[in-house]
């Protein structure tokens, strides 16, 4: 965990299918809300498909770097930020030669209305909270899906590190999610949650630089 950096500079050498399957197996071992297990993983290794995706990746990177990614994050050394930007641009410019991509997807099971259960739920929560729950249903559903995907993604990243593979989680594709889904034939009712480039690293792992624990803990309340 302490050396699991975002590794964006990758060698073009292929990653054996056996290792990619081990990464997905690690992801499958992650917890899933209600044990629904509605996840699927699109694994891309075909250079022709990667070449089709490369322009979409470049558009997403350029859009991000022109807005949220265009400023040095608070507390980050400017020189470290410049190195990160250089790695992002390297990945953008060499994306077509990325050995493998893993795209975690999720199809939430269709709801099964239960009038009696809904009545009991409303009684337990109270009128005001039940109304808030109804109004925030879309956001809650998104959080539920994410909680069933991202623990598996972390497992995948840790498994990659253990195998000596470089990987990093990105969500920039969500700015053009419809285009990505069309390019990969992903059904409309399936949501995508990340694009994870995987390959053999050009650089070295770790250590990660994070805020000290004492600066982020708040005990017994905010």
TrEMBL record:
Domain of life where this protein originates: Bacteria
Domain Nitroreductase: start-end pairs: 5-200
SUPFAM superfamilies named among the record's database cross-references: FMN-dependent nitroreductase-like
Annotated protein name in UniProt: Nitroreductase family protein
